[in-house]
Design brief:
single chain; alpha/beta; Rossmann fold; five-stranded parallel β-sheet; 12 helices; 9 strands
Length: 306
């Protein structure tokens, strides 16, 4: 693996295989000392529950020390240049998990620091979430071949990351969005190029009914993310026809799963009935954030010394 995990495009198929293999083993054995003596810093601009808790507990279960640096502790990019923060923290830490608004801050931390940088979320990518999501599917099915993974909603950072990982592993991925909310064009083109090599079928459409037809997974995310609050009313109107309902599962494959990266705004992007249905595996996804991220940290940091 590379020094950092900035996006799914940083990973080769063999890296993803290694992450998933180690995830399965770590899930069976909660505590070990693989990262004894390592120090992981959580540098967050955005509040979080799952990302913070899963990384903090995961690091400790691997024997590492973990410290949380809240937005007011650093004021990343405001109190001092990001490149200075990166060079200073490199003297103290073995790894940084950064959760930022701007993806450029992730790039800058990785460029100027010699510690490993793990993208815990940025405006462009959410790679650990996508890895956990696709691992959760693999854990259930044991394969990617012949499966249709459908995302309904906003073409956001989660979509960008799912596209990258799906393309790498050869998983067919369909995205249905309203007009004006498409996935990032450059990222989608990059994923399509990889998909041609792995034989994955990547499709973007505005037709939600066609997107969910014969789907093995129906996935959605919030319509209004942090930093987009002023657009809330506009987004509610734009996404009205993209709400995930139980009716969608009548057109999907038998046994279709429902996935969501959480938090869930029940009654907006998905009905409460779907979240609580037999189709829902959202809490398996949330749990697997812990196990997948432990594997990522272990593979990045084992053998790495200050």
């Amino acid at each position: 693996m590379n020094k950092d995990l900035i996006s799914g495009f940083d990973l080769e198929r063999k890296d993803i295989n290694a992450i998933f293999d180690l995830t399965g083993r770590l899930k069976k054995k909660k505590d070990n000392t693989m990262l004894k003596g390592k120090v992981v810093g959580l540098v967050f601009q955005k509040p979080s529950m799952r990302t913070r808790v899963s990384f903090e507990i995961g690091a400790r279960q691997l024997g590492a020390h973990c410290m949380y640096l809240a937005p007011q502790d650093i004021h990343l990019g405001k109190r001092e240049p990001v490149k200075d923060v990166a060079r200073v923290l490199s003297r103290y830490l073995d790894a940084i998990v950064a959760r930022t608004f701007s993806h450029e801050h992730i790039i800058e931390l990785a460029s100027y620091g010699d510690m490993s940088v793990i993208n815990g979320l940025s405006d462009l990518y959410h790679p650990c979430q996508a890895l956990a999501d696709i691992y959760t599917l693999y854990e259930r099915t044991g394969t990617f071949k012949g499966l249709k993974f459908t995302f309904v909603g906003d073409g956001n950072n989660v979509v960008n990351s799912l596209a990258a990982i799906a393309a790498k592993v050869g998983l067919d991925f369909t995205v249905a969005t309203p007009k004006g909310y498409e996935p990032d064009k450059d990222i989608w083109r990059q994923a399509l190029k990889i998909a041609r090599e792995t034989k994955a079928r990547l499709v973007h459409t505005y037709d939600v009914n066609n997107a969910v037809k014969a789907a093995d997974v129906i996935y959605t995310d919030v319509w209004t993310s942090m930093g987009q609050e002023k657009e809330h009313k506009k987004r509610l109107k734009a996404f009205k026809k993209f709400q995930v309902t139980m009716d969608m599962f009548k057109h999907a494959s038998k046994g279709c799963y429902f996935m969501h990266c959480m938090p869930v705004h029940r009654g907006e992007e998905v009905t409460n009935e779907v979240v609580e249905s037999k189709h829902s595996i959202v809490f398996d996804q949330a749990e697997n954030r812990l196990h997948v991220q432990k594997a990522v940290m272990a593979l990045l940091l084992q053998g790495k010394s200050k």
